Amino acid sequence: MTAALISWGKGRRAAAAIGAVSLGLITLSACEKPTALATVTAGTTTVTAEATPGCDGDGKVLDKKTIETCVTKKGGETITVRPDEKVRVGVDPSVAKSGWIVIGGGPVMREASKETYRSFDAETLFAKQDPQTGQTTYVKEVTLQVAEMGAGEGPTTMWHFTLKQKD
Question: What is the pTM of this model?
Answer without folding.
Answer: 0.77
